[in-house]
Amino acid sequence: MPETTPDASGAAVPDPGLARLNRLSKEELRTELAQCLNVDRWVEALASEAPFADRETLLASADGHARAITSEEAATALARHPRIGEKAEGEDTESAWSRGEQSAFAADTDDASARVQRIFTFAQGEYEGRFGQIYLVCASGRTGRELLADLVDRLDNDTETELSVVGEELRKIAGLRLVKLLEAA
Predict the structure, then answer these.
(1) What is the sign, positive or negative, of the torsion defined by CA atoms of 142, 109, 81, 91?
(2) ∠ CA(48), CA(50), CA(52), 5° rounding?
(3) Which SS3 state, helix, strand or coil, does residue 84 take?
(4) CA distance 122 to 7
(5) Which of 9, 65, 94, 100 lies in disulfide reach of 35, CB 3.0 to 4.6 Å?
(6) If pLDDT is split at 50, 70 and 90, which confidence band does 55 have?
(7) Which residues, at least 6 apart from 12, have a Cβ–Cβ distance to it below 8 Å?
């Protein structure tokens, strides 16, 4: 199976990341995919579709499977995510990705940004008290002010709406991490 991806002109170019994933054993592939989204059903569904014909098909399938995340699956996946503002421990790929995704949150060290971070920490505690779980958001590239505004808005959600939002955020994170996985070749 040729592992290619169309470039901007539509011409097929080799896709080493896709080729690497397609060479993995099922168990190795499951391990790699679980770093993107720790939901067994999602991992198994994608692993069962390997080898992948092209990047677009893989990403579309991953997105489709992630749209069906249940509240129980979201709770399991949340257990592996650090709070916003806390650095993920460990030297594994997933921890490194998490640190990178949150890097904009703590990047600014001026007084105003420090105040935003303190207010965020307080609001995060309110969120955890209200919903009984950590606040999860696709933080990649978002500032502390943007994350604080999102967090405050989400405090008004009912539990069912919030679980739906968490599932959507997990889907976004999985998509970003799957691209990182493909680009790691």
Answers:
(1) positive
(2) 140
(3) coil
(4) 46
(5) 94
(6) very high
(7) 2, 4, 5, 6
Are 31 and 163 spatial neighbours (Cβ–Cβ below 8 Å)?
no
Residues 50-60 have a mean pLDDT of 94
- Token pair of 96 as six digits: 């490194």
Query: For the segment 127-138, what is each residue's pLDDT rounded down to a tens digit?
Result: 999 999 999 999
Q: Report the alpha-carbon distance of residue 127 to residue 9 in Å, rounded.
A: 46
Concatenating the DSSP letter of every residue in 42-80 gives HHHHHHHHPSPS-HHHHHHHHHHHHTT--HHHHHHHHTT
Residue with tokens 């790699």: 32
pLDDT in tens, 92-116: 655 455 555 555 555 566 678 788 8
Q: In whole angstroms, what separates CA 79 from the centre of its chain?
A: 13
Within a 10 A sphere around the Cβ of 11, how many other Cβ atoms?
9
Per-residue model confidence as pLDDT tens digits over 147-185: 999 999 999 999 989 988 999 999 999 999 999 999 986
Domain architecture of the chain: domains with CATH: 81-161 (1.10.3330.10)
